[in-house]
Design a protein that fits this description.
The chain is α+β, with helices and mostly antiparallel strands. It contains 4 helices and 4 strands; from the N terminus they run βαβαααββ. Helix 3 runs antiparallel to helix 4. It catalyses: 7,8-dihydroneopterin = 6-hydroxymethyl-7,8-dihydropterin + glycolaldehyde.
């Protein structure tokens, strides 16, 4: 087992609880960590034996382009997408941050972190 991470992904997107946030947009950050078997890729040096970083980035990007009211919902969708489209992933953890959230005070970012383990097939 090993971990693959994409850290510090940045997006400009149109998420937010308030309608105004969804109109003007904001800067968001994503960190994603995947647990998977890295032995075959380490032994073979073949991209086909591991998780392609570009594919992972595109999965996150696709979810970031679809508006959401809550960071919790957005993180949940990212996990669903990653676990649904990348079968070798055993566990995934994602943090989604909103920069300068509208709180009425100074706050560099609000962050939500969710993690999920792939459920084994029934009978195992």
């Amino acid at each position: 087992m090993g971990q693959i991470a994409l850290e510090g992904l940045e997006f400009f997107a149109f998420h937010g609880y308030y309608d105004e946030e969804q109109k003007i947009g904001n800067k968001y950050g994503v960190d994603i960590y995947l647990t998977t078997d890295l032995y075959a890729a380490g032994a073979s040096d073949k991209l086909t034996e591991t998780i392609d970083y570009e594919v992972l980035y595109r999965l996150v990007l696709a979810e970031m382009q679809q508006p959401a009211r809550l960071l919790e919902h957005l993180a949940h969708r990212i996990l669903d997408r990653v676990l649904g489209e990348l079968p070798p992933v055993r566990r995934a953890r994602v943090s989604v941050s909103k920069f300068n959230p509208p709180l009425g005070g100074i706050c560099q970012r609000a962050r939500v972190t969710l993690s999920r383990r792939r459920q084994p097939p029934l009978g195992q």
